[in-house]
Amino acid sequence: MISFGGCQTMPGDHFDNHELYRSVLEELPAGVLLLDRHRRIRFWNRGAERLVGHLAHEAVGEDGAGPLLDPCDRKGHPLTGANSPVNATLHNGQAQQFAAYFRHKEGHRVAVRVQTKAMREHNDSVIGAMVLFEEWFGSREDSSDPPMYGCMDRATRIPSHQLTRAVLNECMAEMERSRKGFGLLRVRVLELDEFRAKHGIQSHLPFLRTAAFTLRHSLDPEMFIGRWGEDEFIVVLPTANPLTTVAASESVWNLINHSEVSWWGDRFPVQAVVMYTVAQPGDRLAALLNGLEPTHAAAAGRAIGAANAGR
To answer: Is 117 helix (H, G, I), strand (E, B) or coil?
Structure first.
């Protein structure tokens, strides 16, 4: 008899049927995976397939805290190997709850809430772990708010440049009325011209989609995300707190730069520079967009070099 963190199966009638429990786990909307003592995935349900894209036959046998999901925290620090909270459950049976960012099969990051429970034998020894995870923030394209989501960019499924400009203008006008500022991020995906020149005119689109999906999952739902330039996105934060703005820019930079794209069987990292500022009453939009500070100076240097090379 096996127990899941103290909840035991009991013999008798239909409830002694292992296939019944398996079918229940399969149909749960959350992702469920069962790990053995060596962290190898022994079971992977349909919820996990839906949330992170890997099919069961691709996941079973892989390291549940390894490169398949490549989990990291909000700052991009890996939650793998010895740093994995799953290890605490496997080693001493302690249940864990934590937030993480799993890498989807298509390369973008998915924000998830994770819970772990020990699987024990009748002698109370830990033989594995059950890991449950669910999406942290709902998908923004499910929103029914027509003023903001009535004009979507086809390539990235986020608000288009035209709508983003309209939102920025409204934010500027509201700031002057309320005398309350807001945070602003400008995200630029790097080296797309070089990749497009080498691999074809549509080859840059997966990089843009991956960056857009990662942005959706790395920021709070009340933050506006929209398309800006050919390789750029704009994020509006409903706060004028400089510390919050800097923290958001750091989080975005870390998570996008820990994402990757699959192109004809090869994996390519996504590189981006993130710039930020806090808008204050009296500011002008053009000056704000041209005066943003880079989150990482080295990344900004790469972006400037790439821009100069394209001229």
So the answer is: strand
